[in-house]
Amino acid sequence: MSRKRVKVAALVALAVALIASSGCVDIEVVGHAPDIPEVVPLDEEVDASDHDLAILAVDFDPPLVYEEMVARKNRGEGITMLVAIENTGTNAERDVAVEMQLCRDNGKTVILHKTSTIEMIAPGEVKIVQFRDTNIPFSRAYLLQVNVAPVPGEVRFGDNQKSYDLLITQP
Q1: Number of other CB atoms surrounding residue 124 within 10 Å
Q2: For the CA atoms of the chain, what is the radius of gyration?
Q3: Quick one: CA dihedral 102, 105, 107, 113, positive or negative?
């Protein structure tokens, strides 16, 4: 075997060994049950369905694939979090505040806090709120909290918040 082939074979073997030993990095998302108790209206004149907002889902663009997120950060593109809010009540709601907070150190250190406002959301309508950031510091574990503020007259708050652990792991 020629010296050139030996060098190429050695480089290929080294590259394969590095890839095999590095392993893939995964992001595990763990949802939490809301810690807000449901409020039961004592007044029979209050209809719990008149005013009711809910967070339907939280998603990310790009999806939470570590390598793609790092590449986008290096290009200055960042990550967009999408929050789907539904008006499950019977009244249109105005100036609805949606808030997201990203923490590390078991929720002790806030590294990102953003708010957005939905000007108007009709009964049965779903609106998507976008939060974008390009400079999220690295951590092995994050706590993501998303909240839609209760509107006047709302009595069911359990679906107004979502909380997730985002865990960076190597298999």
Answers
A1: 10
A2: 23
A3: negative
Mean pLDDT per block of 10 residues along the chain (171 residues) reads 43 38 62 59 60 94 81 84 96 97 91 96 97 84 95 93 87 53
Task: Give me the numbers of helices (H) and strands (E) for the chain, helices first please.
Answer: 2, 8
Choose among 148, 88, 159, 154: nearest CA to 116: 148
Residues 6+ apart with CB under 8 A from 98: 83, 85, 115, 116, 117, 118, 129, 146, 147, 148, 149
What is the residue type of 43? D
Residue 25 token pair: 């990095």
- Residue 160's pLDDT is what? 96
Question: Coil, helix or strand for 39?
Answer: coil
Strand partners, 61: 80
- In the chain the beta strands, taken as DSSP E runs, fall at 26-32, 53-61, 79-87, 93-104, 109-121, 126-133, 141-148, 161-169
- Kindly report the pTM of this predicted structure: 0.75
